[in-house]
Fold 3-oxoacyl-[acyl-carrier protein] reductase.
Amino acid sequence: MQSRVAVVTGGGSGIGAGIARALAGLGHRVAVLDRVAEGAAGVVEEIRAAGGSALAVSADISDPGGVDRAVGEVTAAWGPVGILVNNAGFARDNPVLDMPLADWDSVLDTHLRGSFLLLKATAPGMRAAEWGRIVNISSISALGDDERVNYVAAKAGLEGLTRAAALDLAPFGITVNAVGPGVVQTAMTTVSAARAGRTLEEHLEVQAKSIPRGRIGTPHDIARAVLFFAAEDADFVTGQVLYVSGGPHG
């Protein structure tokens, strides 16, 4: 596999950190982009200690200027971006009638607006190279989930962005796909447990029983799917959404 320049948003923790490590393990130069500078720096240190090449970049991806500065920093260091993984996001859960407008806006701005801005900032370089891989991290919640109307709308929108952008960019050698994780143990799992009124251990046990595979997912499970979509020879697979959730979902 040829070494590429990769950007992973939300790469300072959880699923994003797992994806960043996996890409670096294949020899890619990985920009770990995160709003929390300390998290990005920690992942970069781990990658470098393992012999990989990584760069920490801090930015608010909902801000066009911040995105342009971040991509410019990566490009100045290594050249055009070849692989983009739009992973950054967070949850602000509430029933639809209790959803504050600020929570609606903040979740949509990061998950959907941010992914669009990163795509717009990196795709021209991919088009010039006639090669690019864009992988958006969605969720099985895109299929519907209670008391998460902002998160569900953001992830469903991200899948729509994936399919539409795939059609626009296919003639230029750029693929756009999405990975939809199921239950994966990250820092957000603790938040979900509290929301359900359970301890983390109780929550993981309940969730595992609902998964046909019988276990909770890991960041590595998601990273493996991302690596498939980002592969050099995966150029005939685009506009797809792959749910990595331990069993089928309708």
About this structure: The chain has two domains: 5-182+219-243, 183-216.
